[in-house]
Amino acid sequence: MKRWLLLLALTQPAMLFGQFDRGGAMTYESRHRHSALVEVPFLDHDVSIGAFYRYSISGERFLGLFGTFHARPYARAVLVQAGSHFYFQLQEYRFLLAAGLDKKFWINNRWDVFLTAGAGLTFVDYRGTGEGTFLGHKIEKKEGLTPLVRGGLSYKFSRYVFVRFGYQYSDARTSDGHRVYVGVGGQL
Amino acid sequence: MTNRRWKGGVLTALIAAAVFFGCESWWQSDEDCITAPGDCVDVRPTEGQLVVRSSINSRNPAVPVWVFRGDFENGDLVLMDTLTTAGTTYVLPADQDYSVLALYIRSDGDTVVAVDGDGIGVDEDDYCGGVTCYTVEHAEVDVRLN
Questions:
Q1: pLDDT, tens digit, for every residue of A147-160?
Q2: Touching check for B51 and chain A: CB below 8 Å?
Q3: Given an 8 Å threshold on Cβ–Cβ distance, is A89 in contact with B145?
């Protein structure tokens, strides 16, 4: 009996999280199309901060377009290979500019699961150099196109304020691309 | 009613302008200004310090360093040195950016060139009687081996 209850709870999230007014959520998403978040993807001592904007393109499907920009606002030492046995250790600022689709799967009137997928550009600024050559070895800027994938849970505190937390992946080139993702924002 | 609204609008615009453009000079008379501190440097400094932090270990007891004016690829070499301590300070001309390179050999035999850059700047603060005090913003670079 307990096993059946557990299975039911897992397959029917409403049992865990309470009831969901789907019609109300669709109306809300259609009327409040603009969302913005301050976001902080991080892992250990590698912390970025940025802004995220979402425009709801389908209130009925809870689907939106997003644009995001975030930066590591301090320099961090990274190793860039420039030869088979030669490396540059550079003080790097890293930035990410990306866009794509953002989908919400509502669980109840406060919680939803979000899934974000897009693509963007990651680029860097090194202290003391651009793309210099030293002892016959050239610094290659580790930047270019990257996917951006996010997933996690969102909690709506009030009609307009919500938080998101979960996982993020982007190809950060010189550091681990897997991050913990936290964001706080509003929907208007 | 319209006249009152118009006056209110002008007042709001004035307050907004004061906040936006910095209202200090509008209401601060000479009596309100701050007296220059006793240790005021009233002659613009021409030099500042470049503090270099480096690593010294058994594999790298003497670390070659290069200091360039601007990004190192511009080739404007200021000095070359060999460090035998975990850091040093150079006195160099102010209002300049510098890049520093330090060369290390890792335990696996690979070569690592650590690069960092910073600028030596001069801050200006105005005080009573038209006195300007100058403060040097020293540069700090970290070329320690990670």
A1: 999 999 999 998 88
A2: no
A3: yes
